Every structure is written in C-alpha cells, then in structure tokens.
Amino acid sequence: MPNRSYAILGTGALGGYYGACLQRGGLDVHFLLHSDYEYVSKHGLVVESIDGDFTLPHVNAYNDVSEMPLCDVVAITLKTTQNHLLPHLLPAVVKEGGVVLLLQNGLGIEEEVIRIVGPQQQIIGGLCFLCSNKVGPGHIRHLDYKEIKLGEYAPNYRPCGVTEQMCQIATDFERADIPIRMVDNLLQARWEKLVWNIPYSGLPVVLNATTDELMADLHTRSLIKQLMSEVVKGARSCACTISDDFIHYLLEHTDKMKPYRTSMKIDYDEHRPLEVEAIFGNPLLKAQEAGANLTQLTMLYQQIKFLDAKNCGCVAKNY
Amino acid sequence: MPNRSYAILGTGALGGYYGACLQRGGLDVHFLLHSDYEYVSKHGLVVESIDGDFTLPHVNAYNDVSEMPLCDVVAITLKTTQNHLLPHLLPAVVKEGGVVLLLQNGLGIEEEVIRIVGPQQQIIGGLCFLCSNKVGPGHIRHLDYKEIKLGEYAPNYRPCGVTEQMCQIATDFERADIPIRMVDNLLQARWEKLVWNIPYSGLPVVLNATTDELMADLHTRSLIKQLMSEVVKGARSCACTISDDFIHYLLEHTDKMKPYRTSMKIDYDEHRPLEVEAIFGNPLLKAQEAGANLTQLTMLYQQIKFLDAKNCGCVAKNY
User: Fold this and answer.
1) Which stretches of chain A score pLDDT less than 50?
2) CB contact under 8 A, A206 and B209
3) Cβ-Cβ contacts under 8 Å for A7 (sequence gap 6 or more)
4) Which of A125, A74, A120, A69 is nearest to A97 (CA)?
C-alpha cells in the first residue's frame, strides 16, 4: 500500500491538529499556511493535547499553492468563509485520481467543490467532532473529542455507500490515532450534525449567550427544541429521516457539557466573518427547494446575516 | 358640563406630558408620583415641547394613592411592567361611575383592569402616538406626535362603538390641544398598533440596532415584513382585518423616519424591565387561543424573554 500524501489547505485549529497527527502517524503531509508561514517553516508545529503533547520541529510548509506537490488527498480545512479561494487552490494540488477531503461544517459545499475539480474527481466529506484552538503561530491546543465521520459524495448527495478510498483514508487517520466512523449517506450525516449546529451556532451569537445559559432558560430551551425540529423537517424534505429521540439525545448531551462558547460565537466576538451560508443559508435553500418552509430557521438566518454584515462590514479579512 | 377630575397614575414621560396638558387646559388633575414626588410637590412640572414650552409651578402631587381624591377619569400611564401595582392603586381613586383610561401599549391589559375594578366600571383604551422623554425630575421633553386613539372596552373586546363618555374625554383632551381619534373597535386599533410595535420593539433589542439599520439591511427588512404579516394573521384570528396595504404604508412611513431608538430599546439599554407580555406574550396567546400559529413571533417572544431576564435579573426596580 502506497504512502499517501496529504495536503492540508488551512493550517489552523482544525487543519493544524489533524495534519500534525497524520504526520506523526508517518504520512507525507504538506501544510498550506498564510499568516503563520514564516514561523512554522522555521519552528514547525506544537500540539498540546489531552491525549499527550507533541511537537513536529520540521513540517513541509508552504505559503503558495503552486509550490506544493500534487497530493493524493487534499484536505480542505479552511473556514467556509474562505471558500472563494478554492478555485485557485484546489486545481494546483489535487492529483489526478486523488481525493478531495472536505473537512468543513454545513451543507452544499461538496457541490461547489465538484464544480471546481470536475466530476471525475472523488470527494469525501468529513464531519469533525473536534474541540481545538489555535493559541499562537503553529501552536494548537486540542481540548476535547477528535472523531471524524466520513462519507463519500455523489452528485445530488445520492447515498453511495462505503468506498475503498474511504477505507484507505480511514486507515491513515486511525493509524494517526484519529477515530473514524464511515457512513453510507453523507447528506444524512450532514443534516444530523446541523441539528446541533444550527441552534447552538446561531442563538449564542444573536443572544450573546453560552450554551448553558440558553439551556437553563425555559424560553430559549424551548426555542432550541423548535429549531431542532425545523432542521429535522428540513432533513426529511431531503429524504433524510431523523428521529425525535435524536433531538432528545442532543439536548441531554448538551445539558451535560461544560459552559461552552461555540466556534461561531468566538468568530463573532473576534469580528471574523461567520459561516452563515454553509450552516444556515444552504440548508434553508435545500429545504425550500424541496418545499419545506422553515420559518424560524429563516428568521435565525436573517438575524445572523444582519449581525455578520454589521460585525465585520468594515474589517478586511485575509485567509 | 362638569369639570371632570383626572388622576394620572404614573407621572413619567407620557403621564407627565398628558397630565400637564390637561391641567393647562383647565382641568382638575391629580398626579401620582414616586421618585419625583418631593421635587414636583415643591417645583411643579416643566414641559419642553415642539408645540411651545410651559411650566406648571403648582400641581396636585401625591406619593400615596390613599391621599388622592376619587376622580372621574383615572389614567393609567405606568409601564405595563408596573401593572402588578394596579390592584392596590385603582380601587383607591376610581369614582363610582368613573372611567379608567388605559393609556398603555399592547393587548389584554383591559382584561386585567376589569378584574380589578369590576364589570360595572367603564374602561376606555387609549393608544398614544407620542414621542417624549423624562429628562429630569418633573421635567418632560416632548419631541414629536401626540395624538391618542380612543376606544371603549367591552368584555372579550367586543366592538362597542363610540360612547358618550369617550366623547367627553375627547373634548377634554382636545381642549388641552391633544388631537383625539375615536374608534369603534378597540381590539382592531390595538392590533394595528402592534403591527408596528412588535417588529420595531423586538428586533432593536435582539439585534442591538436602530430602526434605520434594520430597514437598510435586506434580510432584516424582509424579517420585519414577515413579522408584520404574522401580526396581521394574529389580528385576523381575532376577527380584525388589516390589509397588506397597511404593512406597505408602515414600511414607507418608517423609511421616512429619523434614526430612532424605540422605547423598548431604551428600557433595555437602561436595564429596566421590558413590556414583554403586553407587546408580545398577550397577542401571541390570543392568536394561539384562536388557532393561529405565529412561529416567528413566538421566536421573538422567546428571545426577548431570555434577554429581559438576563438584563434585569439582578436589578431591583421600583415604580
């Protein structure tokens, strides 16, 4: 079995963590960086982790995609707000017959990627259950969880089972000590993750609150449940069945979590653009196209759009 | 025609303004005060107004309802958040055969008042279109508008036409240079006012924005329209018909207004309790009882309830 090469497009809290794990696991990893490029090319990466700290004094660091080698697996680990860069980045690094591994939240991004790389290229979606921060240049702090759910993408999110390349990538990650769950229906997995992500990404921004405050108040707790039900309704309109028990399970699970500032709230507080379209806009659009009218999710989307525009309207952001 | 006596329960921006106008118009007015009592009993009231400033060096000021005379007309000019005081205040000042004049926003308060004063007492609702502030003790600044819409209350908000006592009160106010419009359907008038009040009271608090910002953004403008449509739907469930043209008219009217911090936003910024139940909770309940499901208004209510509890949870407020 060949030693697959990995490109990590976006070496932040998520890409930096998974890329470092893969390199430590013996794989050939190539990191695209922007602001941390100088520092990381000299000093490598440092990972502080609940599973044990480690450092990689030398990594293959790039600040220009044209200098990167073509890779077998190209992991997109940017925030979706940077996806306007993909038409420039992807063609330069994806090997023919290689895989684009889309490690982003939300819905509909695979459809953007396939328009860039063409239908002959394989796209695998990955849903990361990871809690990590970048605390300094090339310095990642891994706080909790790390599992990835992998699912193959086929046009229109048609379920297409577990493929050989999914298994190969799973083997690479598991060798790097990252647990993998393979799913045969990527769309279903994406909708399931949105059941949590939509209320807990949106409401903390709109109401300036942590998850535990929202759970403790009867009105917002009830609103969270309603929003979850709307997401389930949206999923159903796309032929994905999610049971009410799942909502119940998520609420109980969140009750047990420590007070938590979700990543969209962190982005908002730091005046970074929010992943509005991937998390809210695209699911809403898919549901609307399928004839489902999600009024509360629409309202949340409109509120977040307003706040996002006001919050970073005057701040220039680079990748 | 007798010189009717007026009690003003709550001498703030609204009660202070209308009460001062009535006294200047020659009526016998009795003002209930709390924090400004000492000052106003010594110095009276000062009104700065776009229509001309005036002072009343002497007014009948009280800080205890038991010392007030029974009055022909008892105007409730407190915020609805102080309505828990009404069972104590009203019976002490309403003359038998007198009128309770309810100058508060929102819906359903007449039903609370009738439970206090009994069904034999006459209740007239008044919707104040007034822009005024209290800028110091006994010092009112009147900025714009002043019209009052009067409507008689009958149980279950049954429309009951224009009554003689409405006409008498209208005459008193008009003599005091306050324009009056009399309506034969109080419930209709209250729902109509809510079409504006609900979006423009709620969204500025939730989104920390002024009316003009909300109108300029396409997403929130659209949300305002949706919320207005839901209020119209709620009105319809209570047999009050409001046309789509009215929404159009309100939007155009608001476009022409100067940037405006609505009174609920001012209350929120000053950590005062919000009129959540009168403006959002009661209309929602009435619509629900009539079988109308107003999902976006529900969400707005839940958001405001959360913010209100957090905002003044630890601040003691007195009337």
Assistant:
1) 1, 314-319
2) no
3) A29, A30, A32, A68, A71, A73, A74, A75, A93
4) A120
Of B219, B295, B303, the CB nearest to A305: B219
Angle subtended at Cα B102 by Cα B310 and Cα B136, rounded to the nearest 5 degrees: 60
- As given in the structure block, the two tokens for residue A73 are 């697996």
Order of strands across the sheet with B148-152? Answer: B60-62, B28-32, B5-9, B71-76, B94-102, B122-128, B148-152, B180-183
Residue B45 contacts residue B20 (beta carbons within 8 Å): yes
pTM of the predicted model over 0.90: yes
pLDDT tens digits, one per residue of A273-285? 999 999 999 999 9
CA A302 to chain B, closest CA, distance in angstroms equals 5
Q: Which of B206, B222, B306 sits opposite A219 (nearest CB)?
A: B306
User: What letter would DSSP give residue B82?
Assistant: G
Residue in this structure with the two tokens 């005459």, named with its chain if needed: B171
ipTM for the predicted complex: 0.91
Number of other residues whose CB lies within 10 A of the CB of residue A235: 26
What is the token pair recorded at B176? 């005091």
- Options A193, A225, A265, A310, the catalytic residue: A193
Nearest to A302 among B220, B303, B310 (CB): B220
Contact of B54 with chain A, judged by CB distance below 8 Å, is answered with no
| A139 contacts: CB under 8 Å, gap ≥ 6 | A45, A46, A48
pLDDT digits (tens, 9 = 90+) for B47-64: 999 999 999 999 999 999
Q: Which residue of A has its CA nearest to B302?
A: A219
Instruction: Answer yes or no: B286 catalytic.
Output: no
Query: What are the pLDDT digits (tens) for A199-241?
Result: 999 999 999 999 999 999 999 999 999 999 999 999 999 999 9
A219 contacts in chain B (CB < 8 Å): 301-303, 305-306
- Of B207, B197, B264, B182, the closest CA to residue B235 belongs to B197
Contact of A220 with chain B, judged by CB distance below 8 Å, is answered with yes
Contact A224, A255 (CB under 8 A): no
Helical ranges in chain A per DSSP H: 15-24, 37-43, 86-93, 109-117, 164-175, 186-207, 211-216, 218-237, 244-256, 263-269, 276, 282-289, 295-312
Under a CB-based contact definition with an 8 Å cutoff, are residues B30 and B7 in contact?
yes
pLDDT 10s digits, B174-210: 999 999 999 999 999 999 999 999 999 999 999 999 9
